[in-house]
Fold each of these.
Amino acid sequence: MNKKKLDFCIGIFDNLTDRGLAKIKDDIQNCEIYGIGVYTDEVVTNDFYTYPVNNLEKRMETAKNIEGVKFVFKLDTSDPVKLKEIIKNEATKYINDNKK
C-alpha cells in the first residue's frame, strides 16, 4: 500500500489521551507529511462551548512535540469552507518552504 503524501488532523490539543495520541502516530506512519491544526481559544470557547485548560501557545507546543509532526498551524474558525482554505494554504506553505 502506498503512503499518502499529506495528512492532517485538527483539534483543541489540550488533554491528549493515549488513544488519541496512538491514532495520530498511526496516521503519521501512513503519510509523508503530517500537519496539525489547533483551534484558537476563541473558537474553543465560542464554537465548542468549552474552555481550554492551556493557552493556544502551550497547546500548539503539545502538537509540535508529537514525533513525526512536520507542521502545526492555528485555526481561528470552525467554518468548514474556511478550514479547507487554511489547511490548503498551510500545507502549501510547508511544502514550498521545504523544497529540496
Amino acid sequence: MTGNSKKTSFGYVENYPKKDSRSEPSRNRVWSLLRHTHTLLPMLSGALQIFVGLVLVSITILGLIEPLWLSAVLSLFGSILSMAGVFLIYHTITKQGSFDGLLNQAIRRVINSQN
C-alpha cells in the first residue's frame, strides 16, 4: 500500500481508460462536416430526403392514399428518395477529406524532392 501511485483517495486502483487522442480527430471531423457550406448543404438535403421518403412510405403503408396504383407509385418514390438521401450523406462524408489528403500528399512530395 505504500508508494502505489495508482491508488486514489478511495482506496481502489483507477482502471479507467486514459483519454485517447484518437477520439479528438473524430470530433473535429464531425465539426468540419457541419461547419463548411459545401458539406452542410448536402448533409441537410440528404437528411431531408430520408425524412420525406420515410414519411411518404409510412403514409402509403397506413393506406391514407386511396387508389392502390398511386399508393404503390408513391411508396416506390419514397423508397428511392430515402436511398438517395443515404447515398448523398455517405458520399459527402467519404469525399470530405479526399482533397486534404491530396494536398498533403503533394506537399510531402515537394518536401521530399527538395531534400
Amino acid sequence: MLTIKREQRMIDADISYQVIINGINMCTLDNGQIKNLDLKNGDYKIKIRSSRFVSIEKIFSLTDGSHVEFICKPNYKNTKLSIFIHRVFKKNIGIDLELKQDIYL
C-alpha cells in the first residue's frame, strides 16, 4: 500500500498536484488531501508535479504487507523572487517529497 499526503499550505492551495509513478499520472492531490494507492509488489519511481513546480524523483519498493508513506509540500515562498530562484537556479524543483514511513510486515 502506498499513501501520499499533501500538507495543507496556503502558498499553493489553489494548485493541484499530480502524482506520477513510473511515468504515469496516477492521481491528483488537492491541498490537505490524502490518497491511498494499492500497487503491485515491485520497485517504483514517484514524483509530484504541479503547474508551477516538480519534486525530485524518489525510488521505493513494495512487497507483501508493506506500507510506504510520502508527504509532499511546497518548499518555496510565495514571492516573485523565490519563484524565480526555484525555476531558474533550482531547476524547477519547488515541491518537497519526503518518505515518512516505510513499514514491512
